[in-house]
């Protein structure tokens, strides 16, 4: 069993593919919209389950927000860079192990800023001066208090709102949590790290669901060789059509498997698929 087969075997138990086979008298043709990591992963699983799969991608490259640049003679990830949850339960673990890729551990399970430990992180202001460690720690504690208070705001409001609006409400109620000067800049940096985690601005990250996720153990590891080898391994021998933009779909004799990006407010972008949901049209 090669690396990509290890991935597809670990990722899916056959429930979806078995359902598709039961609905069809002959093997269907599946079209996956978007060659981001979710689209490629879905296509990989379906291909390994003996389906004919075509992947349509509007860009001139695969990977979506996973893009490794080699301009400086070394891999630099311009998008996704970490493996969050460096443990055997992570679906990517068998593939990364089989490819012999190296992880550099950058944070533990309780990392307050998600992908770094404060003890090993150096932060610099816009003037190039290092932020004192005690300020990072103190503002980090304040940030956690602010997030805890947003839970109360969530409980008080039946309708959803952006996390940034909830933070504003908390700061109006508790002016002692407001930061000034350098501490204010550090607080903005913490919020920025949240935005990086969700790949969305804080003014659209939903208060109701931002913390509703299952966190794998094992901390966080930086992909030393970049994510490019992972994407290429999963995409190997798949039928991927670059520069093919999808403008709509209809299901007739084809079985169309759509993966679409879901922003925090449920919008569906027209040209990329990063975080996918499965929608089978029969």
UniProtKB/TrEMBL annotation:
Its cofactor is FAD. GO terms for biological process: polyamine catabolic process. InterPro entries: Amino_oxidase (IPR002937), FAD/NAD-bd_sf (IPR036188), Flavin_amine_oxidase (IPR001613), Flavin_monoamine_oxidase (IPR050281). GO terms for molecular function: polyamine oxidase activity. The gene is LOC100806878. This is Amine oxidase domain-containing protein. PANTHER family: FLAVIN MONOAMINE OXIDASE, POLYAMINE OXIDASE 4-RELATED. Pathway: Amine and polyamine degradation; spermine degradation. It comes from Glycine max.
């Amino acid at each position: 069993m090669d690396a990509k087969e290890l991935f597809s075997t670990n990722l899916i138990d056959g429930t979806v593919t078995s359902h598709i086979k039961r609905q069809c008298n002959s093997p269907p043709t599946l079209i996956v919209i978007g060659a981001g990591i979710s689209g490629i992963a879905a296509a990989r699983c379906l291909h390994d389950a003996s389906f004919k799969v075509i992947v349509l991608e509007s860009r001139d490259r695969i990977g979506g927000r996973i893009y490794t640049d080699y301009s400086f003679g070394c891999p630099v990830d311009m998008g996704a860079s970490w493996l969050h949850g460096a443990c055997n339960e992570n679906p990517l673990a068998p593939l990364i192990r089989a490819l012999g890729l190296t992880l550099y551990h950058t944070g533990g399970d309780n990392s307050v800023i998600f992908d770094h430990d404060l003890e090993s992180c150096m932060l610099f202001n816009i003037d190039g001066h290092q932020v004192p460690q005690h300020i990072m720690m103190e503002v980090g504690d304040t940030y956690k208090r602010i997030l805890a208070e947003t839970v109360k705001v969530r409980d008080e409001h039946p309708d959803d709102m952006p996390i940034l609006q909830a933070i504003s409400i908390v700061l109006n109620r508790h002016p002692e949590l407001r930061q000034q000067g350098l501490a204010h800049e550090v607080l903005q940096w913490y919020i920025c790290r949240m935005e990086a985690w969700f790949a969305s601005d804080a003014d659209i990250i939903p208060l109701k669901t931002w913390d509703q996720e299952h966190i794998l153990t094992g901390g966080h590891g930086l992909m030393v060789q970049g994510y490019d080898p992972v994407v290429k391994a999963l995409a190997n021998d798949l039928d991927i059509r670059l520069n093919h933009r999808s403008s709509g779909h209809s299901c007739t004799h084809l079985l169309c498997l759509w993966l679409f990006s879901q922003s925090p407010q449920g919008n569906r972008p027209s040209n990329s698929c990063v975080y996918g949901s499965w929608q089978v049209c029969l």
